[in-house]
Amino acid sequence: MRKLIRSASLGLAATITLSGCGAKVTSDAKAAKSRSVTVANCGEKVTYDRRPERVVTNDVGITELMFALGLEDHMAGYVMPADKGSLDGLPYRAAYDRAKWLSKDRITKETALDARADLVFAGWNYGFNENALTPDDLHKEGMDTYLLTESCHNARTSTSRGIMPPLDALYTDLENLGRIFGVEKRAQKLIKQYRATVADVHAKAPKSADRPSVFLYDSGQDQPFTSGRYAAPEQIISEAGGSNLLHDLKDSWTTVGWETVVKRNPDVIVINDYGSTSAEQKKEFLLSYPPLRNVSAIKHKRIYTLDYADLVESPRNPSAIKRLGAYLRRVTGGS
């Protein structure tokens, strides 16, 4: 058990006012008092003895979890890849404008120290890496950490990730963050909204035997990088009415061989849109790659694109389910 001990004043009472896509949280100073909150994070009980006030987040989905809870004023800033280039068109634009873009490279200990962070919210392969930056590196500097639940190492190997269904991971993090920051009502409201959206799409999905098989293509030409049972696409696909081609892969994000894709013959391919290779370039590769020419999704050109932030754990997951569900019903003859 890892226990992080700190003492500080904590404002418990919070007034939530919605503004645009996000929410702003203001604390009632008269009600401020110390408190200790313990949550389960990646199998460990972690205690936070104060509400963090200078959080550094890594990557889009993690950052937008904070924004969805109206916590941008509790952030020292965020680290986001250079390929985002512009914030135009992103959800939570007002929150992005309020927070500071600290780096367009990977998060480092120096970035967190320069920002005077009291908590770093990241995950394994979402900023943390055994060979570069670990939570313990930051604990030694007096900083707390919170790990994205989608990224938790599972017990199968030392590198495979994921310990629960992806939507459960999203709800777990919202609930934990709600407790850590004293915005439990806002967190529960979001979870209720997200569950309702997912349930509505799920009700329209076909029976299991009639579901199209869906392959998530992230990147890679020699070997495709894709998602298994514990990454967000698993439930984005299944709740939308499809069946994840790699459902039996007990990992989150990993590589497979093209021969597996060909043998399993997906009905639909979903492209993860991010990075220096555009979604259109990825589509052109898939359509022209000879080993795939007889795959059903290629023959019928059933290829759909979702944004990176739709496909990692984030507040955009329910919306992605809704959009993909509509596409699957359209191309497979559903209502």
Task: Walk me through this protein's architecture.
It comes from Streptomyces tsukubensis. Residues 54-335 form the Fe/B12 periplasmic-binding domain. There is one protein chain. The relative contact order is 0.12. α2 (93-98) links the parallel β6 (75-79) and β7. With 335 residues, this protein is α/β, with parallel strands linked by helices. The termini are far apart. The protein folds into two domains: 51-194, Nitrogenase molybdenum iron protein domain (Rossmann fold, 3-Layer(aba) Sandwich); 206-331, Rossmann fold (3-Layer(aba) Sandwich). The strands form five sheets. Strands 5, 6, 7, 8, 9 and 10 form a six-stranded parallel β-sheet that branches. α5 packs antiparallel against α6 (184-204) and α6 packs parallel to α12 (317-331). The chain contains twelve helices and 16 strands.
A few lines on this structure:
By secondary structure, this protein is α/β, with parallel strands linked by helices. The protein has 12 helices and 16 strands. Helix content is about 35%, strand content about 20%.
Secondary-structure topology with pairs:
Blueprint: E1 14-19, E2 22-27, E3 37-41, E4 44-48, E5 55-58, H1 60-68, E6 75-79, H2 93-98, E7 101-103, H3 109-114, E8 119-124, E9 127-128, H4 135-139, E10 144-147, H5 166-181, H6 184-204, E11 213-217, E12 225-227, H7 233-240, E13 243-244, E14 253-255, H8 258-264, E15 268-273, H9 279-288, H10 296-299, E16 303-307, H11 308-311, H12 317-331
Parallel strand pairs: 5-6, 5-8, 6-7, 8-9, 8-10, 11-13, 11-15, 15-16
Antiparallel strand pairs: 1-2, 3-4, 12-14
Protein name: Iron transporter
InterPro entries: ABC_Transporter_SBP, ABC_transptr_periplasmic_BD
Organism: Streptomyces tsukubensis
